[in-house]
Amino acid sequence: MNLVVISSGLREPSSTRLLADRIGAAVRAELGLADIEVVELRHLARAITDAMLTGFAAPELEAVFEKVAGSDGLIAVTPTFNATFSGLFKSFFDVLPEQTLNGTPVLIAATGGTERHSLVLDHALRPMFTYLHALVSPTGVYAATSDFGARGLDERIAKAANEFARLVPLCGRGRGEAVNAELDEMHRLLAGAQQ
């Protein structure tokens, strides 16, 4: 199983990356995975801008597109600016080739300075990923600055990770491989029964 985390924090260290890592660790534990690929969009900011201006993706951006396209699920984490996702986050998904996320499970998450921005999950992220035909996991995670170190955040992360971990095997790209393997086995058994 192959999962990718997209983190669009702009600073280092970043509360967005911290949240992305905590969610990634919880999902890894739920699915028994060794690793999850994390992509920091700030390192690709120029390539994303160039792709928006020219319509062509640089090789390093194309490599990220391929990782996302080949993933069984995506964890997307953004800082909140002016009650919505960051421009860098949105720009990445604007230049991502159409239909890349069709049927891909996505866990949405965001960070912000105060709790006032918590609706960013349902008013900005969920509609955008629904438009991109992704399968948005029911529970997203919002973390205000005051949430870090608080017990409630760990509980929300655990709930979101559990739901996402149940969604990925049912809907991720790996599910098609499992169905094909089951069909191959069924055909093999039927062929043996006809002899």
UniProtKB/TrEMBL annotation:
It comes from the Bacteria. Residues 1-146 form the NADPH-dependent FMN reductase-like domain. Pfam families: FMN_red (PF03358). InterPro entries: CE1759_FMN_reduct, Flavoprotein-like_sf, FMN_Rdtase-like_dom, NAD(P)H-dep_FMN_reductase. The keyword Phosphoprotein does not apply. GO terms for molecular function: oxidoreductase activity. The keyword Flavoprotein applies. Keywords: Flavoprotein, FMN, Oxidoreductase. This is NADPH-dependent FMN reductase.
